[in-house]
Amino acid sequence: MDSGLYLIFLATTVMLIMVPGPSAITAASQGASHPQGKAFFGVLGIACADVLYFSLSATGIASLIIASATLFALIKWVGVAYLFYLGLSAIFSNAGPINLSREQKVSRPGKLFYQGLIVQLANPKALLYFSALLPQFIDPAEPVLLQLLIMGASCLLADLLVYSTFSYMGNHLARKQLKARVVNAINKTAGLTLIATGIRIAMMEAKN
Predict the structure, then answer these.
(1) Which of 8, 32, 79, 156 has the greatest CB tally within 10 Å of its CB?
(2) pTM of the predicted protein model
């Protein structure tokens, strides 16, 4: 695989991951309200969701999903509903699933993993991204499987590093002992961001 092409792929992927969205909010809130060791399971769930979408795209299944209006719509609306649930919970509940709290919680690692996984799977934009991106960076003159393995491993590592950083930032923010009104404002902002993302996904069409 050409090193220059690989670096462009890596930079593009990292920049996409770094754009704050539902997964970044989830990682930050889990880091704020859980010990870092446990919060990492949420990061792992997000990364595994991207690995799944990458694998689907690499095997061509994603193209079939996107081509099927019914199946794509199902994935989209389940994602929209879940993002709305998270957003409304953050706005109206003091103990919502993405609530930024200064109190350490005792949640099972499996629950954190599941939440991270579902939040990322709820956004089919990742499916569109990988489906559109991968063909641009595959060199047909080189072993395709090896190239996919390298890019897949790179995506996984980038996910773990970037979302762990978001998790650490959430933990650092929580330790600042912010006033209740500031924490409440952050929660509401996070909730509105998730709802706005849900609206954007609801307006998204498979052909885009």
Answers:
(1) 32
(2) 0.71
